[in-house]
Amino acid sequence: MVPGLSAGSVALIGFGADSAIEVISSLGLLWRLRRAGPHATVGDESAAEKRALYLVATTFFLLALYITWEAVNSLISREEPLTSPVGIILAVLSLAVMPASLEELIE
Question: In the chain, where are the structural domains located?
Fold first, then answer.
């Protein structure tokens, strides 16, 4: 998110925020699994599941609100998109790394 803030790029900020959301979601789901262990009651398991889902949903909705807000403001003020060397490098690296990661998941 820091490169996005320094470049003033909503796309980079969103990309970084999405990564942070994935970490928060993972921690929430890990908490859910620990909370609803093998000896948990159905009520405990259900409550833990509900809290974890709310955490994940809230973080994604906050990201969507931020991106929508920035997009509407940019449209109203008629801002032109800017390029950023950091954004270009991140896009190229993502294109190189993500297919390899998907290939490992499929196998």
Answer: 2-81
Here the contacts of 18-27 (C-beta below 8 Å, separation 24 or greater) are 18/63, 21/56, 21/59, 21/60, 21/63, 24/55, 24/56, 24/59, 25/55, 25/56, 25/59
From 3-7, 10-14, 54-58, 100-104, the region with the lowest mean pLDDT: 3-7
- Mean pLDDT (the chain, rounded): 78
Which tokens belong to 18? 């999405």
Cα 11 to Cα 3, 31, 74, 89, 105: the distances in Å are 11, 30, 12, 13, 26
Contact 32, 106 (CB under 8 A): no
In terms of pTM, does the model score above 0.70? no
Amino acid in the structure at residue 71: A
Total number of residues shown for the chain: 107
* Alpha carbon 95 to its chain's center: 18
